[in-house]
Amino acid sequence: MAFSSATVAIGKNTKKSDYDRVLDNTQYLKAEDVHEKKTFQSSTVFNALATFDKPVIHNSSTTFNATATFNVAINGSAIIAQTQLKTSTGEVSHVGAIALFTLPGGEYGFYPQVKVGGNGNAGGAGIGSLGTNYKIVNTTYGTTIVLSAGSLSTTYAQQRYVTSSGEVFWIFLLIDKKNNQVISGYQSPDHVCFGNGGDAEKISHPFRNYNSKTGKLVVMGPSRNSEEKEVDLIVINPLHNDIIRMRKECKEVDKSLLQYIIEDFTYEDIKTPMYPEKNGEAGYPTTLITVGLENDEDWNLEGKPVKVIKKAIKRPEYIKIKKLVDIIVTM
User: Fold this and answer.
1) What is the pLDDT of residues 229-242, one digit of tens each?
2) Cβ-contact 316, 204 below 8 angstroms
3) For labeling, which of 190, 238, 302, 321 is most exposed (least CB within 10 Å)?
């Protein structure tokens, strides 16, 4: 259907299905604000700023050639321009005998950087094997790293990666039940399944040596004998303004963000809801978040739009919800 005039009149005899089809195949050339629930049945192109304040469903391809702001969840897949991609960084950390981790960003990441923190200077990092029985056994690609550190040290690995998301910030910590100390940590603007398969049920946390059935962390000791520790696995989802403040503060004390979280904060139960979802848990987000980009190894070379995959992340029962508390405030 084509219209040559500047104005199109829809008569009262026009069927609603015809009217909807006209709208669904429209290219929006100027700013568009969607303040009511809407379903796009067929291909739609937004060439100017678009803001969505109500639930929208995209049942076919949707292309955004300008900034799109979603204040609500999107059902389905969205298409974004490559100019909307950015880079973020995430970290993992470990103290003690050798353990295996999934790196934030997964296949979208660059080569990781490593460092040692704490009062000691002994640490190690490697891919697949570190002079132990931790050898590469998987037959498909995975983005993992092996970390170890002495009793007075903590080894950190940081990876920068390509993303379009960062809707919810994720912190995972493994806490030793005996002394309440952090053994392993993870911080990233994206869930650990992002770039690592996109399945939060298969990769619900970054700690590959944690056994969710027994609640124990199994690590490789100096004599290559396995050691077990009883731990609590907790998740923390700070609000955006808190992360901005913490990033500024950690630079002032010359620490990375995960190091700052581990050394300068403790945690506690959440008493009041932090997120507005009606059916969500207090302190745990249930909105759709980005878990991956389109599975095409050449998308970054051709300049074509990128498909964004969004899912809701269900919390496993064995992961406890907590919130961060500044140690200085609680003293």
Assistant:
1) 999 999 999 988 89
2) yes
3) 302
